[in-house]
Amino acid sequence: MITLYHRSKTRSSRFIFLLEELGAPYQIKHVVTRTAQGGEPDPANPHPHGKVPAISDDGEIVFESPAIVLYLTDKFPKNSLGPQVGEKKRGTYLSMLAYYGGVLEPAFMSKFMNVTVPRPTAGWVEVEEAMGFVVKTLSQGPYLLGDRFSGADVLYATTFGMFGQSPLLPKSDVITDYVKRCLERPAYARAQQKDAA
Amino acid sequence: MITLYHAPRSRSSSILWLLEELGVPYKIALTPIVYGNGQGAPAPESYRAIHPHKKVPAIDDDGRPVFESAAIVLYLADKFSLGNLAPRLDDPRRAAYVTWVVYYSAGMSPIATARFQGWDSDNNTGFGTMEDMETFLTKTLEAHPYIVGDSFTAADVLVGGAVRFFKSNLLSDRKCYDDYIARLDARPALKRAQAKDNG
Lengths: 197, 199
Fold this sequence. Notes:
The structure holds two protein chains of two kinds. By secondary structure, chain A is α+β, with helices and mostly antiparallel strands. Chain A folds into two domains: 2-81, 3-Layer(aba) Sandwich (Glutaredoxin), CATH 3.40.30; 90-186, Glutathione S-transferase Yfyf (Class Pi), Chain A, domain 2, CATH 1.20.1050.10. Helix content of chain A is 47%, strand content 9%. Chain A is built from seven helices and four strands, in the order E-H-E-E-E-H-H-H-H-H-H. Chain A has helices at 13-22, 65-75, 90-113, 127-139, 151-163, 173-183, 186-196, and strands at residues 2-6, 26-30, 54-57, 60-63. The longest helix of chain A has 24 residues, at 90-113. Chain A is globular. Chain B is of the alpha+beta class. Chain B is built from seven helices and four strands, in the order βαβββαααααα. Chains A and B meet through strand 4, helix 2, helix 3 and helix 4 of A and strand 4, helix 2, helix 3 and helix 4 of B.
């Protein structure tokens, strides 16, 4: 049984979306996260940095959003939310998951912190360059893996949806349409209800 | 056949090490990059078909590119060493394995960059703190000799590479780091990779 360590309307919310897509059995455990001002970590939260999301699979902990997506889509292949080992698009799927954690999130964070990315030494690039690649990929879409919706889209589409009109996200019709396409899915609506519960 | 797009003394050196550990045939495509000290030159524009930002490492598996260190490690170890350097999907260690591979690139690497750049000198950055990272790393390495347990996995190529690189200037002095590095340095595949690093 999967336990999702969750705080409402945060980055863990999209894992309710993914779990609904997967049709996997799960339970939600609400935890308190540390704020920017610090505070004591919640002893009920297994995340080593006191953040969400984290999951437990019968006591084995997974954290970092791309790792959780990969772990879950590998474990629950029934609804084909991710190419399995040996499948043709496995490499692209892994690349897009890792790119989210290693490039896209740090790029947004750098812009939010108003710092210049040291391009040769950092593992990532500025938001504008990263989003150029994402928009180009989605232009051949409709999804990151082409015609197939996957766990990677759960990460990207919810992130872009969350940013909405924020100046952090360069404006693009391709992104607007993509977010709409992904968040119109019935599993997203179910997840929203469960997140509010 | 695997092609590794590689630049000496860069992040692709870890993937070279992994390929030696896996013992599979591969070829090295030496790829120009701009180094942190400003030396070097950018790769030709044609390389963007392999890596969207013209960085290394990237690999090509019979025409299929894979980029980002975490993705490459997961891809290669699952393809060539499932049940050995990559825990099987039903192995309880799979959870920690995928976590550490991703944590290397999404956690350790931005946290280290933030410290090198001094971004975290006044306040916490959004990347997480060096202290939390060290606590997690130390707790893990004091519990077992390798990052996901009693045996070496592909995750050690990334995490071990980072610990070695950060040890002299970023991490505290701790016996668990020294012991870990000594254990990794004794591996013949690492020595072979170091001998091939210049291409």
